[in-house]
Amino acid sequence: MQWISILLIGIAANIDNLAISVSYGLKLKRIPFLYNFIISLISIVFAFFSISAGSFLSNYFSQSIANFTGGFLITILGIWFIAPLPFFIKNKSIQTEDNSPVFIGLEQPMKITLKESTFLGFLLSLNCLTIGFGAGITGFPPLFTSISIGLFSLISISLGIKIGNTIGNTLFGKYSSKIAGLLLIIIGIYEMFF
Predict the structure, then answer these.
(1) Each residue of 37-73: pLDDT tens digit?
(2) Residues 6 or more apart in contact with residue 162 via CB below 8 angstroms
(3) Rounded CA separation 132/150 (Å)
(4) In 3D, which of 190, 174, 181, 160 has the Cα closest to residue 72?
(5) What SS3 string covers the chain?
(6) Residues 52, 140 contacting (CB under 8 angstroms)
(7) Which of 63, 130, 132, 166 is 20 to 30 A (C-alpha) from 70?
(8) Distance (Å) of CA 14 to CA 71, 137, 182
(9) pLDDT tens column, 146-194
């Protein structure tokens, strides 16, 4: 019976991962398997330590603070999707022989960088701390529970990116970044206040 609970915790910890990766997919971003695996490893490490020390850490880092911090960072990410800061914007144009710019279209998904995927991994892991605290307090085994969280992280991110890429190419077009950002802001506000 505990195995079922461990699997359910793995799924519950990654509901936000699915929604956030759909948002990335709407921006026509692609996360290679290696980077997705790195994100999952970060989730496993965070989950293992938060579960192992759940009862101890809850005395110093409350669930509400963890929720608020994770939600705040997700909200900032959503704002950045809608209105990127100038120093983060990369030039997506190339120059022809006559120096006229040719802008690259958004039809093909673009791979995220290693730095971006690592940041995303820490962001998603921070957002899962509360579940780790709760699992640790209730006596779930740290190793198997954290592996479950990491496994479902791998699945949910891959699935979310595919869904987002498909929707972004068919329905929303040039508004996909704003829709993705709005989705992230809604998730972030929910995490902070509900």
Answers:
(1) 999 999 999 889 888 876 565 556 666 776 677 678 7
(2) 25
(3) 12
(4) 190
(5) CHHHHHHHHHHHCCHHHHHHHHHHHHCCEECCHHHHHHHHHHHHHHHHHHHHCHHHHCCCCCHHHHHHHHHHHHHHHHHHHHCCCHHHCCCCEEECCCCCEEECCCCCCEECCHHHHHHHHHHHHHHCHHHHHHHHHCCCCHHHHHHHHHHHHHHHHHHHHHHHHHHHHHHHHHHHHHHHHHHHHHHHHHHHHC
(6) no
(7) 166
(8) 14, 20, 19
(9) 999 999 999 999 999 988 888 766 655 566 677 777 877 887 888 788 7
Pairing of strands 101-103, 93-95: antiparallel
